[in-house]
Design brief:
mainly beta, Maltoporin, Chain A, six-stranded mixed sheet, about 60% strand
Amino acid sequence: MKPILRAGGACLLITAVPVSSASAQDRTDDNAITQAEDAFGFSVGREAIGIYGPGQARGFSPTAAGNVRIEGLYFDPAFNLQNLLVDSVSIKVGLSAQGYPFVAPSGIVDQRLRRPDSTPGASLLINGDGWGGKGVEVDGSIPITGTLGLRAGANAGRTVYPNGTDGFSHSESLLLRWKPSDKLEVMPFWAMFNDYDDEAGTFYVPAGDYLGIPDRAGHDESPKWADIRFRTTNMGLLGNLSLAKDTVLRLGVFRSSVFNKHLYNHLLVDQQPDGSGERILIADPQTRNRSLSGELRLTHSILDGPRLHLFNLSLRKRDARREFGGSDVVSYGLGALGERVTAPKPDFEFGELTRQRLRQTTYGAAYNGRWKDVGEISFGLSRARYRKVTRIPDEATADARSRPWLYNGTAAVILSPSVSVYAGFAKGLEESGVAPQNAANRNEPLPTILTKQKDAGVRFALTKGVKAVVGVFDLRRPYFGYDEANLFGQVGSIRSRGAEFSISGSVVKNVNLVFGGVLLRPRVEKNADAVGEIGDKPFGLPTHILNANVNWAVPFLKGLQLDAGIFRRGRQPQTVSNRVYLPARTTMTAGGRYGLKLARKDASLRVQVRNLFDNNDALGAGPGLYAPRDHRQVTGALTVDF
């Protein structure tokens, strides 16, 4: 979804507002390859492609950094927005982020909601896979009056994971859209997700400088009673009001929460080269995390011949409450790889919780100038007021405050109808995620940090139907690692320089290509007071990522489309010391979809093979932490639009 401009009439839509809404009854058309605008990250329905995603962009996580948007407006999720509500997700970096008033250094995750349609209808989706997973989903649109519409959805299913664990889940959603005139639109929404009997699985921590040795794929070693149970809720209100033909007021208010009723982590630590090690299980007490967040944005436009001037005033707020700690750890002694823990469930003794409250208010002003066939320039200035209070049992309350100035600027010049160049810079206040599972302070939210980024690039047309983007970037932010007490905290700073590219479009008739890549050259500067061995390369960042996807609409068999994809991740450090590296990994997918009629209704049959050649190399889950092996999976889904 591009930021768009619509001038004239009673309304001016100027800040990443969708031109069209997704119907509730057109799910058979979902195809990430044909719908993606670039290769930087896009998902629609249950399909995702691209070199970046919500958890990783240019080497960092835009979600963990707090750069999530709903319809372009600020959203601080305690848990991800439920899929039933979301039509598509786009990762915005570089040139694709222009038009957003306040650009974030680590990229933007913008979520587009699936809105009610003007006619009644529904979509039914039935899915299954070769691992034993299965599910059903239905969502529909009900026009209540000419100005009021409802979209409702529900799904339920059993999910089976690569390590053989499984879980049952269900979710429900409601979205109401009231549009009494061209000047006003109001959309409240609500969604809930429940997860049951989701086994803990096993993570592996080697004793020395070598890769962890996971169990065979599809086999679970954790206790059968160690079932995870949690519930998430997201609700909110979106509003658009045209105060005048050249002035728009937008509002987004959101509440996101997660209730962890049962939470376990099973680790095989001090793992020896033969795969054996000490089995420990970490149980957490019940915790509740929630966040209230939102943005109020006023946009005024001035149309001056071929030039358009956009002025934005923004108020963003969040009030987040988090609970963590109080865990109980049980050791089951030495165990061999592949042995399942059969010991009965103990009586856990939990400690007191650490409670944290984070409040942030950000005031901002931004300008965007667009000159037809010439270029675009934008800049923004914000002042954040941040406070985080942490109450740790039997310790003094920690109170952290800051009031930094934040800024960003971008410029693009149109050199010809087919070539544009751009450059930008940004300074932002971002989150850092939480400490990993094998840290002494596991699950503890890491400090909020200041980040800086510079980028530049060029966009050009290779052919009439294919466009390319090539860019470079330089991103700086604090770096986190372990100290001698195994506490995970700031140990230095990181400078991540890289180059990225995207090629997308219709290469020939009936063939669509989405091909992208990023080359990374990150470096770590160790703090003078940091202890322990810290390498000069950050853990978890590969040397490169490549992703290519192609879709072929078979001309001699109407309705049949074939697709294939390849994903390659380069070699990457897996420990803070850089003594252990994950080897490069390449996986492939192949599949197809067939459009047909069932009882005179549009339908689509989708089949795909993921990890086609069954690459089951070790996978990283954090510094010195290894995840279960992946393996080949065959998936199938039938979608019917009513």
